[in-house]
Amino acid sequence: MLTKTPHLFDEATAVTAGDSRWQGRTSPDYWAFVGPFGGCTAATMLRALMQHPQRAGDPLALTVNYCAPVAEGVFDLDVRLVKANRSSQHWSVEMTQGGGEVATLATAVFAERRPSWSHQPAEFPGAMPFEGLRSFPKLKMTWANQYDFRFAEGEPKFQDGAAKQLSSPYSKLWIADRVPRKLDALSLMSMSDAFFGRVFHARGELVPFGTVSLTTYFHADAADLDAEDTTRVLAVADAKTFHKSYGDQHGELWSPSGRLLATTTQIAYFKA
Predict the structure, then answer these.
(1) d(CA 199, CA 190)
(2) Which DSSP string do the residues of 148-190 spell out, in sequence order?
(3) Which residue, 223, 267, 228, 233, is CA-closest to 247?
(4) For residues 49 and 59, is the Cβ–Cβ distance under 8 A?
(5) What is the pLDDT of residues 153-189, one digit of tens each?
(6) DSSP class of residue 57?
(7) Cα separation of 36 and 96, whole Å?
(8) Which end of the chain has the lower number of beta carbons within 10 A, N or C?
(9) Which residues in 157-194 are b (16+ Cβ under 10 Å) and which e?
């Protein structure tokens, strides 16, 4: 009898429960410039929370602060329920390696979503269907090759050195796991950090870059995502400013049916 091979994303974000801490291991399949892909790290921390026996409800918000480089190998997650009430829970997660200082710090809010009045004033951005667009070429960063990026607008044109004329940091694209995987909160979390650095788009070149702080808000619970039954999102991202080594990013993740699934903001470091 054949057994189903685990998806690389599930292997990369796997965690195990310990006596007082959870453990995980970085994955070479989701590696960035000098460390693990931040979206994978965030999804790993979210998985520890979702698998925690005290967890109630679905993720509402996750903020991740990348405090220090994460080395290849094992890491510990110190998971703590900070406050809980009838409808929400507030959590903190600290990632350390080898008993050292905190490398990544996350705070999360989980909530019991109940039927209520609904209204989505944001308009679906729309784009050519996924199948009608070509896949973005593979890059040296292994994490990027785990995704199928199909740009409808704002495809970056990387070159050696900055372009003579700056380009818009805006982009609109489909994002899907290269090996299809049904969308859930974990993949949604990772995809919210899967946009290329806005500075790359503006300058037309790859420069030293790293996310400092990332916040993702979830606008759909597990039942909503299950009902969407999709393996991809239509994503848009833009930036408002780049100044003194830091730049912002804000993005939206939409289902193909036109439902806003998540919004995200971040501040990132760059050297240019």
Answers:
(1) 20
(2) EEEEEE------SS--SS-----EEEEEEESS-----HHHHHH
(3) 267
(4) yes
(5) 999 988 877 778 999 999 999 999 999 999 999 999 9
(6) S
(7) 14
(8) N
(9) eeeeeeeeeeeebebbbbbbbeeebebebbbbbbbbbb
